[in-house]
Every structure is written in C-alpha cells, then in structure tokens.
Design goal:
The complex is a heterodimer of chains A (103) and B (156). By secondary structure, chain A is of the alpha/beta class. Chain A has a domain of 62 residues: Transcription Regulator spoIIAA. Chain A is built from 4 helices and 6 strands; from the N terminus they run βββαββαβαα. Chain A has a 4-stranded mixed beta sheet with strand order 1-2-4-6, covered by helices on one side. In chain A, strand 1 and strand 2 form a beta hairpin. In chain A, helix 1 runs parallel beside helix 2. Chain A is globular and about 30 Å long. With 156 residues, chain B is of the alpha+beta class. Chain B has a single domain, classed as Histidine kinase-like ATPase, C-terminal domain (Heat Shock Protein 90, 2-Layer Sandwich). Chain B contains 3 helices and 5 strands, in the order βααββαββ. In chain B, strand 4 and strand 5 form a beta hairpin. In chain B, helix 1 packs antiparallel against helix 2. The longest helix of chain B is centred in the middle third of the chain and has 21 residues. Chain B is globular, with a radius of gyration of 16 Å. Chains A and B meet through helix 2 and helix 3 of A and helix 1, helix 2 and helix 3 of B.
Chain lengths: 103, 156
Amino acid sequence: MTTAPFEVQRTGNAVTLIVRGALDITTAPPLADEIDKIIAAKPAKVHVDLSPLELIDSSGVAALVKLYKGVRAIGGAFTLDGARDQPLAIFKLLRMDKVFKAP
Amino acid sequence: MLPIRLVVPGLLRYRAVAVRMVAEAARMVSGSRPRDEADDARSYDLRDPFDAAVVSAFGEIFNNVAVHAYDRKGGGSIEIAITPSERDIWIEVRDEGQPFALADVAPMADIDPDGLPERGMGIHIAKTMLDEMIYEPGPPNLWRLCKRIDWQRGGA
C-alpha cells in the first residue's frame, strides 16, 4: 500500500510543504490534490522542503511544477530547498535546479 | 553473473517492488552500500550516482509500460531481466501491450520558468541517464537499457 509522502504546515499566510520518501507516479496524485487546496487558499509564501525526499520521478517533478506555476499565478513567493542525491540529479538533468534554486 | 528475473502484472502497484530489485542490482555493479544496514524496506538510498541513474531510468520505463502499453489497466505482464556485471548493467523490459511511438517523443526544450513542462519528461530522463536505450516494438515490446560504470569516478 502506498501512503502520501507529504506534510503540509500552515502558518498565517505561509505554507510549508515537506515531501519525504518517494514522490513518484503512485504517490504524486494525492499531492496534486493537496496542491489544488494550497493554491485555492492563495498563500503569500510557499516553501517546499525536500530534505527527506529520497526518490522522485517525472510525475513527482510535474507535481512540483504545478505548485510552482500555481504560486506564481497568484503572485505568491515560491522557494524550494533540501534536494539531494537522486532528486537533485533529476532537477539538474531537467535544468530545473536553476528555476527551483536547488543548491 | 546470471540474469535476475522478475515478472509482475503490468500495473503501477507493482512498480515499487520492481524498482527495489533494480536498485539492489545496481548496487551489485556500483559497489555502494545502503545507508541503513537495518534493511528498511520503505527506505531508498540513492546517494551513488550510478544507482540513481539506473533507478531513475528504469522507473520511467516501468511507468511508460504501465501507462502507455497497458493504459493503466494491466491485462498483461511486465518481464524484467537484469544482467549486472563488473562494468555495466543491462536491463530488459518486455511487455505485451500497445507499442510505444518513441520516435514521436519531442526533445526537451530549454527550460522557461513560465513554461515549465508538466509532462513528457520521462523518456528524456531515461535516455539521458543511460548509456544505451533501445526500444523494439513487438509483440512483445522490448526495452533494452544499459548503464556503464564510469571508471574515472573512483571508489566503486
């Protein structure tokens, strides 16, 4: 059984999304649903913490891109950090590290 | 080494077990050791670039077969044969679903922050991560994936 590998923390008008374990084609759909809720609340800031994330695939990347686009569309600030190992390699391969400002 | 074989139904719910097997086979080639010696079955450890590349590419191909060949409905099997050696790993993935139009996959464009893609990245990831990626439409359809050890990297 697959469980959603994310946690959402809300503080005022800011949201922190922590993603852990594997974000892939089997776990990304529930995150995409949560992203819709995050965007609907029009937060001023959204921060994504990927430090506990071990594995990501193209579906996981697509979910994060959806969040990034949604936050920008409502004029919010988007930050992402903590990507390492395989997830960082994927971001660099797709050249999204420059967009997401991954280290 | 003898090939390692696994046959699973062509459904995404079997992805995790297949990825786990490929990750361990990649470790046989790279010589990497998992971070947690307790063998946490829910934990991935892909610090080694070779392991990360092999698992990333295989995961995308498994996704492709389950989603495109079997239309997320199963109805057939996915047969995986892994041949690790001291210098490389070969992975063959066979399915009996619809052939995939690999030639129709457009190359990734330069990343534009306002036009980031939300799909179509899987084949690009697999192809870039591997040294060889060969697709032979069937039936059965056959993906042949190869990743070689970089002898310049040292340590493995």
